[in-house]
C-alpha cells in the first residue's frame, strides 16, 4: 500500500490518488479503509491500537456525509455495551493515541469530533470516482478506469454493527459505477476494458440483469455471437437455480433477428445488439 502506484486493468499501474490528495500539508496523512485499515503519514506506516482505529474509521465514514459527531454519538456507537464512564475513558485513551501519532488526524471541539481536514481517505476517493462515472459526460479521467477502488470491501475483517449499512451503501455505489464504466467504455469501443468492468460488476451482484445485458451487448459489438450466447446461458442457469425465473424479454430480444416482411428481403442479421448511444 505504501507504493506510489496502484494496480489497474491490463497490468498497468496508475498513481495512488491519496498520495497527492492533500498537497502542501505538514504531514500528508492517508487513511485506507478498503480491504483493511492502514494509516500513513508521509511514507511512514502508523500502527494504532484497535480502539483508535475504530474511532478514525467512524469519523471517516461520518465525514463522507458531511457530519460532525458529538462525543456522545461516538461512544454510543463504538462502546454501546460499556458503561458511560468506561466508554468515555476508552474514547479519551483512543484520542490520546491518535494525537500522539499526529495532532492533525482528528479535530476535537468541546462536544464535537471530526476527522482532520488534511486526512485523505480512500473511501472518499472511491465515492468521487463513482460520482464521475455516474455523470452524464463521456470523458474518463486517467484514474477512472482503475477498478480496484470500485471492488474494495469496507474493513472486511471487522465485526461491527455500525458498518453493516455502510458496507451495503458502498456495494451499491460500486456496482452502479462499474456498470456505468462498462457502458462508457463500450461506447468508446474499448471492449476488453468494458468486459472487465462488467465482469467485476457481475462478481458483486451475479443476478443484476442490466450488467449481463451490457456484457452481452459488448460481445455483439465485437461480433462474438457465441460469447454472447454463452453469457446468456450462464445467466439463465443462475437465475433459474437461485430464483426459478427466466431472463427478461428485454435481454432475450437481443438474440432475436428482425422478421422479414418481404420474402425477397435480404436475410436478417444473426443478432440485434442494443445501440450504443
From TrEMBL:
<dbReference type="Pfam" id="PF03704">
    <property type="entry name" value="BTAD"/>
</dbReference>
<dbReference type="InterPro" id="IPR051677">
    <property type="entry name" value="AfsR-DnrI-RedD_regulator"/>
</dbReference>
<dbReference type="InterPro" id="IPR005158">
    <property type="entry name" value="BTAD"/>
</dbReference>
<protein>
    <submittedName>
        <fullName>Transcriptional regulator, SARP family</fullName>
    </submittedName>
</protein>
<dbReference type="InterPro" id="IPR011990">
    <property type="entry name" value="TPR-like_helical_dom_sf"/>
</dbReference>
<feature type="domain" description="Bacterial transcriptional activator">
    <location>
        <begin position="121"/>
        <end position="259"/>
    </location>
</feature>
